[in-house]
Hints:
Elements: E1 10-14, H1 34-50, E2 54-58, E3 74-76, E4 81-83, H2 95-102, E5 108-110, E6 122-125, E7 128-133, H3 139-151, E8 156-160, E9 171-173, E10 178-181, E11 195-198, E12 210-212, E13 215-219, H4 223-229, E14 236-239, H5 242-245, E15 256-257
Parallel strand pairs: 1-2, 4-5, 7-8, 10-11, 13-14
Antiparallel strand pairs: 1-15, 3-4, 6-7, 9-10, 12-13
Amino acid sequence: MSMEPVIFHKAIVRAPGPDAAAGLTTAGMGSPDYSRLLLQHAAYVEALRRLGLEVDVLPAAPGYPDAYFIEDAAVVTPEFAIVTRPGAPSRRGETSSIEAALAGHRPLRRIEPPGTLDGGDVLFAGGRFFIGLSERTNADGARQLGAIVASAGHPWTSVPVGSGLHLKSFVNTLGGRTLAFAPGFEDGEAFRDYDRIVLDPGDEYAANTLWINGTLLMPAGFPGTREKYARLELPVIELETSEMRKMDGGLTCLSLRF
């Protein structure tokens, strides 16, 4: 199996703030327990460090309870760091501190109005960028990002998401040209040339699995998905994500990786 050409050396994360329960959510699973959320976030950071990444932990952002879902605020490519314009107006103040954190690593580009873009709608797999058109990312934002990545020679494709928060709520790379799909999302024309692992009904949340340098980080509690991943013969680390899940969050959105 071919692996992702991008090897990650660094990650930027943000600590959850004590106002995390005030964030946006459609999960209907109750409010997160802040102490448990901090423990789960710390375990995530430790997993990244165990895999050899240097991890910068930004302080919590008071007044922005969703800011620890840091991936939505930027897209980092080998050439650029693109500061997004989040689709939820309440989250647009998150990006200024992200600019400062990324400025020393990449030239900055920005998504401009009327475009909106969340990083959770951006998937890089098999040498191509897939940009979800969702409630948070509009066609103008997708076109802007597409033009930026195309200027560096990267092909891109827009993908209608339909119901659901982000593209990566439904599909994620497992390395190279192998993708994990939530059931019902695997027939998209955009992914016709990719190998597919389709998860079972009830395991949709586990589609938000994070590939890091040949290891899979997956949410704990999905033995059927773990069994499906076994055929890839990759190391797997299961992480507890119950408190992030209450706020529509998963493993991919907790870091910027480059």
